[in-house]
Structures are given as C-alpha cells and as structure tokens.
C-alpha cells in the first residue's frame, strides 16, 4: 500500500472530509432557507441560485469519487447522441443495483454540466436526511410515498411545476422502485410470472406508473429518455465507505437516447413499452457479464476541475477556524472543553455514519420484500 493510499484510509482524514461536508452542507441549507422570500419576487432567479447552492453540496461527493478515489467512468453511447447530452432536458431510467449508483449518476451529470439542476423521483424518507434531503426541497425534487393512490396527485403537480424550469435538467427514475436484493428479485419475478411477463435476471420488475406519469407530464419539456445501464468491472461492489477509503472503482455506463415521442401516451401501452425496455436492459447486462463490456463505442467524458475547486474552497474556509479552535483548546488545557470537543467529534462521526447508512443496500427498506397475493388468471 502506497503512502497516499495509507493516508486515504485513515479515520482522521475521513473525519475531516465529513466535517467539511456536514458543516458546509448545513451552511448551504441555511443560505437556501434565506432564498425563501426571493421565490415570491422572482421564482426563476431563486431557482438559479438554488441550483448553484445545491452544486456546492453534491459536487463534494462527486469530487470524492472523481478526485479522492480516482474512480474511472466510461460511457458507451452512440456518437450522434453524445453532443445532445447536457443540452436538453431528459428523463433518465437507471438500474438500481449498487450502493453508489446515484453517485455515478451525479458524476455523469457533473461531466455534462447538469449536476446542480438534476432531479429524481425520490422516496419521501430521503427528504428528512440532513443536508441532502433538506437541499432537495429547494431543488423541487419530486417525492413519493410509494403508495400510488397517495402519490398520484402530488407527483403530477410537482412534475408540472418543472415545465418552466430555467436550466437544463435530467430527471432520474429508478423504475424498479427499490434496490436489488435476491429476495426482492424473487418476489418481483413471481409478480412478473403472474402477469405473463418475461423474467428478468439482473433487474427487479419495473413499476410502470411513475414512468408513465413522468413521461406524460414532461412531454414538451423533456426531449428524450436516456435509457442508462450501469455496471462495474471485475464484479466490484462499490460502496461510499470504499470511496472514502480512496478505493478506485471502474464504472461503465451504457446510454441509449430515445426521443420521447417514441414513448406511447396510453398508460397500458406505455407500461408494455417499459417492460420491453427492461428486457433489453437485461440483455445488455447479460452481454456485459459475458464479455466485460457493453455494446457500441466508448467515450470517457473528462472530469472537470469545478468539483475539486469547490471542495478545496470549502475545506480552506472551514478547516482554518477548526485549526484555530483546536489550538486554543489544547493550549487552554481545560478538561471540560476537551471532553466537549470530543463529544462534538463523536456526534459528527455518528451523524455521518447514519447518513452513509442510507446509501447501503443491506440497510434498505422492506418495500418489495413482502410476498403479494397473486392472481394467476
Ligand atoms: C446516467 C445519468 C444519471 C443521471 C442522474 C440524474 C439525476 C440524479 C439526481 C439525483 C440523484 C439522487 C439519487 C437519489 C435516489 C433516490 C431514489 C429513490 O428514492 S428510488 C424510490 C422512489 N422511486 C420510485 O419508486 C420510482 C419508481 N416507482 C414507481 O414508479 C411507482 O409506480 C410509484 C409511482 C412510486 C407508486 O408506487 P406503488 O408501490 O404504489 O407502485 P405501483 O402502483 O406501481 O405498484 C403496484 C403495481 O406493482 C405490482 N407489484 C406488486 N409487487 C411488485 C413487485 N415486487 N415488483 C414489481 N411490481 C409489483 C402490482 O401488481 C401492481 O401492478 P398493477 O399496476 O398492474 O396493478
Ligand atoms: C465529500 C463526501 C463526504 C461523504 C460523507 C457524507 C456522506 C453523506 C451521504 C449522504 C447521502 C444521502 C443521499 C442518499 C441517497 C441514497 C440513494 C438511494 O439509493 O436511496 C435508496 C432508494 O432509492 C431506495 O431505497 P430502498 O427501498 O432500496 O431502501
């Protein structure tokens, strides 16, 4: 293990990175709160400011992946579609298989200049996560309870609000609705069988309602669906803890650009279209398993310096007062202040561990885990 690698694996380094992330995140959340009065005066200006503030948070995590861990991201795509990425609004359909698939998504957003503005149909529970979840309120992220009857009108309203969004965005949909586990896969394949649908080997059965409502409400706003299939080389199982430890992964992403006009408007036809899309995605994953690559030509969109610059900025801003504080603390020699400081460090460490836990599949929800009574007619 090299010296740099040894340094990256040190708990103290992680604590410093997490301190910068947490404190800068809370400061940005506060600044976002201060933009509230602006929404009534100039909604578009408030949105543009919030896009930039959100970028300051999410790009720190992207910087950890790109610059700290040095993870490589390769894109497999049609060269004719490539120039359009980042220049139009799009609905992104991505497999939900890895702890950090969302972070790879963010990384591609960063490379195409849409990181601050990108959106997702996210489960309501994530809105309570400090920093990220609070930031999402101001980004007009669409939340769902994963109960269609309750979600229908709220999701529709939130999507309609995006029709006059001032900057290009990608709207991410994990149609599987939850992350892949063998148990959830087994249950969803029982549902597939009962519906007479072909079985999938690498994906859960997609939930079609969210996709249909998104396609319907973003027609005329989004130009295309980006069908995206992600995998990692050498059977890597990447985690956020691995990224913090400086572990380098190799992400491969296959993207097909499908004009939104090709997605049927009728709900049942749209559902059938999505099921067929997932069967194709499954074939791509099979191809990857057999050959170690996706079909078609590759490009490696270059990493941009902005995520690193932003990270260095916040580190300098927040580590200087921390250094001063620690020096004063040690020179004061007061046992009480030292104990209080250790308690604050433990709180930061505990808080961040809890947040990292949100990204771990083995701590995932029970959604899709329960056997459903099947109608085999
Ligand atoms: C490559 C570039 C990447 C770009 C990235 C861009 C942007 C990045 C931005 C942000 C990144 C942040 C990342 C954060 C990630 C957070 C993501 C999440 O929180 S995922 C979870 C929430 N999202 C979803 O669930 C979306 C998909 N779900 C749906 O669309 C659902 O339909 C719904 C709208 C949520 C409603 O949920 P509900 O449970 O009520 O679903 P349904 O009505 O569809 O379910 C009933 C239906 O399904 C059948 N059924 C029953 N059991 C199963 C099963 N196990 N599997 C599949 N289907 C099942 C059941 O028979 C019913 O069928 P029918 O409709 O025919 O009656
Ligand atoms: C600079 C780097 C510092 C890193 C240290 C701090 C890390 C803090 C990380 C907080 C990240 C919070 C964002 C969580 C996004 C999780 C996305 C996700 O994958 O959600 C799962 C849902 O889709 C489905 O849920 P399940 O039904 O599978 O359950």
Automatic annotation (TrEMBL):
Alphabetical list of InterPro entries matching this protein: Acyltransf_C, Plipid/glycerol_acylTrfase
Organism domain of life: Eukaryota
Membrane topology value: Multi-pass membrane protein
Phospholipid/glycerol acyltransferase domain sequence ranges: 90-212
Pfam families per record: Acyltransf_C, Acyltransferase
EC number(s) on file: 2.3.1.51
Keyword Membrane (UniProt): yes
Chief place where the protein resides: endoplasmic reticulum
GO biological process per UniProt: phospholipid biosynthetic process
CDD domains: LPLAT_LCLAT1-like
Cell compartments where the protein resides: Endoplasmic reticulum membrane
Record's keyword terms, sorted: Acyltransferase, Endoplasmic reticulum, Lipid biosynthesis, Lipid metabolism, Membrane, Phospholipid biosynthesis, Phospholipid metabolism, Transferase, Transmembrane, Transmembrane helix
Catalysed conversion reaction: 1-octadecanoyl-sn-glycero-3-phosphate + (9Z,12Z)-octadecadienoyl-CoA = 1-octadecanoyl-2-(9Z,12Z-octadecadienoyl)-sn-glycero-3-phosphate + CoA; a 1-acyl-sn-glycero-3-phosphate + an acyl-CoA = a 1,2-diacyl-sn-glycero-3-phosphate + CoA; (4Z,7Z,10Z,13Z,16Z,19Z)-docosahexaenoyl-CoA + 1-hexadecanoyl-sn-glycero-3-phosphate = 1-hexadecanoyl-2-(4Z,7Z,10Z,13Z,16Z,19Z-docosahexaenoyl)-sn-glycero-3-phosphate + CoA; (4Z,7Z,10Z,13Z,16Z,19Z)-docosahexaenoyl-CoA + 1-(9Z-octadecenoyl)-sn-glycero-3-phosphate = 1-(9Z-octadecenoyl)-2-(4Z,7Z,10Z,13Z,16Z,19Z-docosahexaenoyl)-sn-glycero-3-phosphate + CoA
Membrane-spanning residues: 12-31, 311-330, 336-356
Pathway: Lipid metabolism; Phospholipid metabolism; CDP-diacylglycerol biosynthesis; CDP-diacylglycerol from sn-glycerol 3-phosphate: step 2/3
Enzyme's top EC category: transferase
GO CC, alphabetical: endoplasmic reticulum membrane; mitochondrial outer membrane
Single GO MF annotation: 1-acylglycerol-3-phosphate O-acyltransferase activity
Function: Converts 1-acyl-sn-glycerol-3-phosphate (lysophosphatidic acid or LPA) into 1,2-diacyl-sn-glycerol-3-phosphate (phosphatidic acid or PA) by incorporating an acyl moiety at the sn-2 position of the glycerol backbone. Exhibits high acyl-CoA specificity for polyunsaturated fatty acyl-CoA, especially docosahexaenoyl-CoA (22:6-CoA, DHA-CoA).
Family to which this protein belongs: Belongs to the 1-acyl-sn-glycerol-3-phosphate acyltransferase family.
Record's protein name: 1-acyl-sn-glycerol-3-phosphate acyltransferase delta
Gene that specifies this protein: agpat4
